[in-house]
Design a protein that fits this description.
Blueprint lengths: L8 H8 L17 E6 L2 E7 L9 E7 L6 E5 L4 E9 L1 E5 L2 E5 L4 E4 L5 E5 L5 E8 L5 H11 L5 H6 L1 H4 L2 E2 L3 H8 L3 H4 L4
Antiparallel strand pairs: 1-2, 2-3, 3-10, 4-9, 4-11, 5-8, 5-10, 6-7, 6-9
InterPro entries: Cupin_2, QDO-like, RmlC-like_jellyroll, RmlC_Cupin_sf
Organism: Streptomyces gossypii
Protein name: Cupin domain-containing protein
Length: 190
């Protein structure tokens, strides 16, 4: 596995900076949440971005149909990412290990650890995904939807890696895991 990015002094100091506390509770009703299609087999429901939480966290709900390629291998320098499976079964790469999580299972991936996720073979999956500290991610998800609709390219996504702290990597372990899902799952965003 190769990591194709560098940690800068700015990213280290940003991750160690104190998180401002939100001034009011954050309530998002399901009917009011923005739902994005980042591919033909997955949805991202936007719950709370870092601006709404005073930088404490960013949260979304990820929904995957059977055979979805999910998110390709990547890492973040400034935040950890948490996964709580709400329905179905989710496979997650964390470092060099692939874990299969069921309903109620939880996994935390620290900053700098390569990870990827997709539904387990033959299954659907729904998960609560939380970044802490929060990162402004909603525009990144909107960019993914624009790529899906042909209004932007994956080069636009790669060009935004530093801004959105989303650094793609190659993972033979994850490629092997996806091969179990069949050819459709191998056509990821990488």
């Amino acid at each position: 596995m190769t990591i194709d990015s560098h940690t800068t002094d700015a990213s280290v100091s940003a991750s160690s900076a104190a998180v401002a506390q939100p001034t009011a509770p954050v309530l998002v009703r399901a009917a009011d949440a923005e739902v994005l299609a980042d591919g033909p087999t997955s949805l991202i429901t936007l719950l709370a971005d870092s601006g709404a939480t005073g930088g404490a966290l960013t949260a979304n709900r990820a929904t995957f149909q059977q055979g979805s390629p999910g998110a390709p291998a990547h890492f973040h320098t400034r935040a950890g990412e948490m996964f709580l499976v709400l329905d179905g079964s989710l496979r997650i790469l964390s470092g060099e290990q692939v874990h299969t999580l069921g309903v109620g299972d939880f996994l935390f991936v620290p900053p700098m650890v390569p990870h990827a996720f997709a539904p387990a073979p033959g299954r659907t999956a729904e998960a609560l995904v939380v970044f802490t500290p929060g990162m402004a991610r909603f525009d990144y998800y909107r960019l993914l939807e624009r790529v899906h609709h042909g209004e932007a390219t994956f080069q636009d996504v790669r060009g935004s890696s530093e801004h959105y702290d989303n650094h793609y990597v190659d993972s033979a372990v994850w490629r092997d895991a996806l091969a179990e899902n069949g050819p459709a799952a191998l056509s990821t965003r990488q």
